[in-house]
Amino acid sequence: MHTTILVTGATGTVGREVVKQLAMLDGDIRVRAGVHSIIKGENLKRLPGVEIVEMDFEDPESLRAAFTHVDKLFLITPLAEDQVQMARTLVDEAKRAGAKHIVKLSALGAGAAHGIQLGRWHHEIEQYIEESGISYTFLRPASFMQNLIEYHAESIKQEGRFYMPSGDGRISYVDARDIAAVGIEALLGDGHAGKVYDITGPEALSNTEVAQLLSEVTGRQVAFVDVPEEDYRRSLKEHGSPARITDALVELYQVQKADKSSGVTDAVEKVTNRKPHSMRQFLQDHSDCFV
Domain named NmrA-like: which ranges (predicted)? Predict the structure, then answer.
C-alpha cells in the first residue's frame, strides 16, 4: 500500500530538497508538492512521481484537495506575519484528512523559555501540533548554508564581498540537504514520534572564516562586510518588509553577533548514520554559484 506525503512550501530551500530526496527513493511513496503558484513549481515537475498541487489559503477547497488521502505531512510555512495562523490551518486540514504524522520545520532555539520572536512563532506552532493529537517530529535547524547562495551570491560574484549585520559571531550553519535527510528519516523511519531534533552542521564558523573558505574554494579574494544595524533596517524597509518581520530578523542577527548561535549538535549523524556536510564541502559543491 502506498504512502502519500504532502510537502508544503515545496519550492523553498528545504522543501525543494525534501521533495527531491523523496522522489529519489525506491518504494511505494507518492510525493505531493504543495506550492503557492503552479508556475513556481515547474522545476519540480521534472522529478519522477511528484504531483504538484496549488495551495491558496484564501481558497479552502484548494487546501482540502491538497490534503486528500494524505498520510504524512512535511510542514513548512513562510516567514510572514500570519505564519502561525497559516500553520494552524494546515494542521487542521491534516487532522481532517486523517494524517498520521507531521514533521515540522521549526528553528533552532524555538523551545527556549525566553527565546527570540522567530523562535516564539515556531514554538506556538509546535504547541498547536502537540494539542492536535497527531504524531509529530520537530526539526529545529540552524541557519542554512544555502542562504549564502540565495542572498549573497551576486555580491560575491560582482564585488568579492558579502554583507550581513551579524558581526563575527560564530554560526553553526547547516546544509539543507542534511535537514531534508533528517526529515525524511523522521517521515519514514521508526522511533521519531514525539522527538525534537536540533540540527546543525559539524562546526561553528564566523563570517570571516566563511569568507576565507570562499576565497580558497573560488580562487579569488572574498571578504565579509559587517553592516550597521540601522543600515540593515533601512534596507529592509525600502524593500517593503513589515515592521514585525524586520524586528524579528534584526533580533536574530543580534543573537548571532553575540555568538549565541554557535552550538553544534550530532543530530544529523545520529538520525541518518552519516556526518553532515561541512561548509567547505557545501562551497565546493556549489562553487559555480559564486564565480
Answer: 2-263
**What dotted CATH number matches 3-141?**
3.40.50.720
pTM given for the model: 0.96
- Helices and strands: H and E segment counts in the chain: 11, 9
Please state, in angstroms and rounded to a whole number, the distance separating the CA atoms of residues 173 and 110: 16
Q: What is the pLDDT of residues 100-113, one digit of tens each?
A: 999 999 999 998 87
Cell output for 291: 564565480
Q: Which three-class secondary structure string do you get for 195-206? A: EEEEECCCCCEC
Least Cα distance to 207 among 266, 145, 277, 119 occurs for 145
CATH architecture entry for 142-175+199-262+277-291? Alpha-Beta Complex (3.90)
Share of the chain above pLDDT 70, in %: 100
Residue 212's Cβ-count burial label (10 Å; 0-12, 13-18, 19+) is: middle
Q: Where along the chain do its domains lie? A: 3-141, 142-175+199-262+277-291
Residue 47 has pLDDT above 80, yes or no: yes
Angle value at C-alpha 124, between 120 and 125, nearest 5 degrees: 120
Q: What average pLDDT is seen over the chain?
A: 96
* Residue 1: pLDDT over 80: no
The Cα angle at residue 167 between residues 166 and 169, in degrees rounded to 5: 85
Q: Label residue 114 by pLDDT band (50, 70, 90).
A: confident
Q: What is the DSSP letter of 277?
A: P
